[in-house]
Amino acid sequence: MSANRFSIEGDRIDSLSEFLRAEVDDCFGSILYYPREFTGSEDKPLVFRGKKFHEVSFKDTIIKNIRFIECEFRNCLIMGASAVDCEFVDCVFFDTNTSKMKFTNCLIDPLSFEQNFDLTNDANIAINLYHSLYRNSAETHQPKYALSSLYRMKKAESKNLDSKFKRGSIEKKQYYIEKSKHIIHDFASGYGLKLSNVARLLVIVIGVFSILNYLFSSCIFTEDVGVSTFLDSIYFTCVTITTLGYGDMTPDTQFGRIFITIQTLAGFGVISLFLAGVASRALRSN
């Protein structure tokens, strides 16, 4: 399924009270909501708890001062709508078109849209939505949701490259360059947003170099000085990559010096990536 549907069929509703009367078994279904605003009173929000919205159109509607709690939106049309002073708590969206939807001063978890998009077909819609969620979360000081929105926007941009390539709107060489950047950036640091990815990369680098240092110990050290066990190799690799350099194990062959220099540079790069990720998260959270 996909969220790029642009029309639904249903009964025309011309007022909020008429909409509320259309509920059947906690479900609002096959409704075309025509009023400009869908809003609660100024002093008290309108609350929907545990409701289902199936094939409901809120196209170009201003949704204001509403609390949606544990609600489900499925096959809905919310394109061009604006959510203002709303809360979406533990809500989920499925196959709902959110094109050009805007959020202002809202509480909403980007994970609510995790199952909403087929990024093969909906990449542009997803990019616009997550960008709007990011701006809303940043302006309302919700750092966790801001970072989550930004990461999902980057993932959608990566998928959008695939769509452009299939349509022939991007050259093959440019596609492979840009796609490689996305893959490397995502794997290495989660686009500078996931420190867990950097930690994973550090573990991989230490593991790979530990194995190589153990296997090629005789090429790195002389017989008198070197690693005799794999634990020694892990210790030496960690000391090298973190640039501590205690000096108790020192490469004394030409190959060893070159190889350890490469490891030191790799370690410096990963640690720099980690520090950059910390700084990026702090700046974007603010």
UniProtKB/TrEMBL annotation:
Q: What region holds the Potassium channel domain?
A: 213-281
Subcellular location, in the record's words?
Answer: Membrane
Any one Gene Ontology molecular-function term assigned to this protein's record: outward rectifier potassium channel activity
Q: InterPro entries attached here?
A: 2pore_dom_K_chnl, K_chnl_dom
GO BP annotation list = stabilization of membrane potential
Transmembrane ranges, per UniProt, are 198-216, 228-246, 258-279
- Per the record, the coiled-coil ranges are none
How does this chain sit within the bilayer?
A: Multi-pass membrane protein
Listed A to Z, the keywords are:
Ion channel, Ion transport, Membrane, Transmembrane, Transmembrane helix, Transport
Q: Does the keyword DNA repair apply?
A: no
Pfam families (UniProt xref):
Ion_trans_2
Q: Does the keyword Transmembrane apply?
A: yes
GO-annotated cellular components: plasma membrane
**Principal localization?**
membrane
Name of the protein? Ion channel
